[in-house]
Amino acid sequence: MADIPPQQSFLTQIGRLLHSAAFLTTAVKYIHCPPDEGAEITFIGRSNVGKSTAINCLTQQTQLARKSKTPGRTQALNFFQTSGELRFVDLPGYGYSQATKHAEAQWAQTLAEYFKKRQSLRGSLWLIDIRHPMTKLDYVMAEWLMQFDFPVHILLAKADKISRGEGLQVEQNVRKALRPYLPNVTTQRFSSLKLIGIDECFKQISNWIYDGEE
Ligand code: GDP
Q: Hey, what's the torsion of the CAs at 151, 96, 25, 197, to 10 degrees?
């Protein structure tokens, strides 16, 4: 049997690790978060941007992130543990129309505490709809994220909805728009539906969790 090319075997490894993810716990307040050890990658995005679908896609599971959508878990941090040291953390979607001002304020406070204190945080995948990039709410989020110091990688979600050429142009515009807020931001096109950008996203995740290890 032919040897698997190193690149492919590496992506297969990451795929297997992510596939092992299972729901761990829900935290409404920072003190409810699991012990701060290993590595964590968070998912940020507006409600309906495709965050749950992306988590299901990256873990190759059909139901995993649906658990985050059960009542009581929508305004909470939801942790998914893999068989390794890695956890995915699904953060509450912002701009959720039914959220009260009080709930939004509490959400921001819990998140700020998480982002400030969390030693295991390696980076955030921030989903932005490729068809509606940089809305007013996205700018509010970008400005809010400036106070923290962790890497952000943008997934321009639902990239199947526009042509590749248009998508690349949007990518360039979004990078330019975000630079003043997040100078080291990186971007890519992504589609859970048409599997666009999955390997690229796997590579980003791997860079974060192995942090220069060969
Ligand atoms: P969430 O609120 O951010 O978790 O969003 P969901 O994952 O529930 O997705 C919201 C809607 O977008 C659903 O109708 C999904 O089927 C759709 N969706 C999610 N990902 C994609 C994608 O990559 N392409 C397209 N065309 N639709 C998607």
A: -50
Q: What is the DSSP string of 18-69?
A: HHT-EEEEEESSGGGSPPS-SEEEEEEEBTTSSHHHHHHHHHT-SSGGGGGG
Q: Say what the pTM is.
A: 0.92
Q: How many angstroms is it from 117 CA to the middle of ligand 1?
A: 31
Strands 39-45 and 121-129: parallel
123 within ligand 1 shell (Cβ under 6 A): no
CB within 8 Å of 133: residues ≥ 6 apart = 156, 170, 173, 174, 177
Per-residue pLDDT of 38-92, as tens digits, reads 999 999 999 899 999 999 999 999 989 875 566 555 678 999 999 999 999 999 8
Measured in Å, residue 147 CA sits from the centre of ligand 1 at: 29
Angle (nearest 5°) at CA 65 between 62 and 70: 120
CA 81 to CA 45: how far, in whole Å?
20
Q: Are 190 and 197 a contacting pair, CB within 8 Å?
A: yes
